[in-house]
Design a protein that fits this description.
Blueprint lengths: L9 E7 L13 E2 L2 E2 H10 L6 E6 L2 H9 L4 E3 L7 H9 L7 E4 L9 H12 L6 E8 L13 E4 L5 E5 L15 E11 H7 L6 H6 L3 H6 L4 E5 L10 H15 L1
Parallel strand pairs: 1-4, 1-6, 4-5, 7-11
Antiparallel strand pairs: 2-3, 6-10, 7-10, 8-9, 8-10
Length: 253
């Protein structure tokens, strides 16, 4: 992990809830002999851009499991309306943190280099309020029309203009070399911005699309989008956990 200066302390936070309608207890589901959350934590441990890592959870079983494999977990309220609210509560336990990277606790194959890139963008000169990532899709990919796949369009300098569950952009005219970007649910924040964000009420577009990042845009925040080739799958079902286990075993040999 990097040496922390007096002014910069980058905290990686892994939100990890017990309750999941499709997959209760998912964080402790064993994949290749380790709990899912441990795989994500180990990926973060190999990052060079994080000074500290915590798991933000609402369940004592997850807390005990994280401590058993050598990690640090912070208990948070089970009643948070969004993952960002859970992150903000957990960050209060780390007063030294100046910047936060929110790494989804169900992405065991996340690329540590992407986490490091987000940490560098959010703490570097001219840093935005938030940073996130997106990977290109072919405009003909069926995922473009899938409302469960969130799309993002950016300005020429990489600032997010809008996120949507609808196809975005709408190609009235074909444009050579313009991909559709699938939003990847990883975020980095300046601490002061995160603390402001959770004081704002859910915004109209956020409520319409069920996308909390729209609250940031509606309140005038800048979100920088990093293009990435990382298409690592998340785990939402036991079947996907098995697919990840097969991927891990194939890369181990």
């Amino acid at each position: 992990m990097p040496h922390s200066t007096l002014h910069t302390h980058i905290l990686g936070v892994l939100p990890s809830r017990w309750g999941s309608t499709r997959f209760p207890g998912k964080p402790l589901h064993l994949i290749a002999g380790k709990p899912l959350i441990q795989h994500v934590w180990e990926r973060c441990r190999s990052c060079s851009g994080l000074h500290e890592i915590i798991v933000a959870t609402d369940d004592e079983r997850i807390l005990r499991a994280v401590e058993a494999f050598g990690g640090r977990a912070v208990m948070t309220s089970p009643d948070h309306p969004t993952g960002t609210d859970r992150i903000a509560e957990a960050v209060r336990a780390v007063p030294a943190a100046t910047h936060i990277v929110n790494i989804q606790g169900d992405e065991p194959l996340i690329d540590p280099a992407l986490i490091d890139e987000l940490a560098a963008v959010i703490s570097g000169p001219g840093a935005p309020d938030m940073a996130t990532a997106a990977n290109p899709l072919d405009p003909a990919d069926p995922a473009v029309a899938d409302p469960n796949v969130v799309k993002v369009v950016t300005a020429l300098d990489g600032r997010a203009l809008y996120f949507s569950r609808s196809p975005l952009p709408y190609f009235r005219n074909p444009v050579e070399g313009l991909p559709v970007f699938r939003h990847k649910g990883i975020y980095a924040y300046q601490r002061g911005f995160l603390e402001r964000f959770v004081t704002w009420p859910p915004s109209p577009l956020e409520r319409a699309e069920s996308l909390e990042q729209l609250r940031a845009l509606e309140n005038g925040a800048s979100i920088h989008v990093i293009p990435t080739a990382d298409t690592s799958p998340g785990v939402d079902t036991p079947e996907q956990a098995l697919e990840v286990e097969l991927l891990l075993s194939s890369t181990a040999h």
